[in-house]
Amino acid sequence: MVLETRPDVVVLDVNFPGKSAFEIGQEISSQLPMARVVFLTGFLSDIFIEQALRNRNTRGYVLKGESFDVFVRAVRRAAAGEFTFSKDVEDRVSYLE
Asked: Which of 15, 21, 30, 59 could join 78 in a cystine, given CB atoms 3.0 to 4.6 angstroms apart?
């Protein structure tokens, strides 16, 4: 469905049934190089953050506890090619660098 609709932004739940959301994100990025990916998750995990950041099209990693406004801002910023991370994720991203 994603390949047919060719969206500007794809939001993936990290806890995706079946195939890994990170694998799906990579497939989307390879077939739709202009599509940006935002991961939405309840998991604040260095391993998951690292996997998300391996995707060249990842533009966000937002925790489910964030407000709806933060989520909408992340999608809009992703569409513009900008990055958005939840505050707790930002702290970990700088730690991982």
From this structure: 59
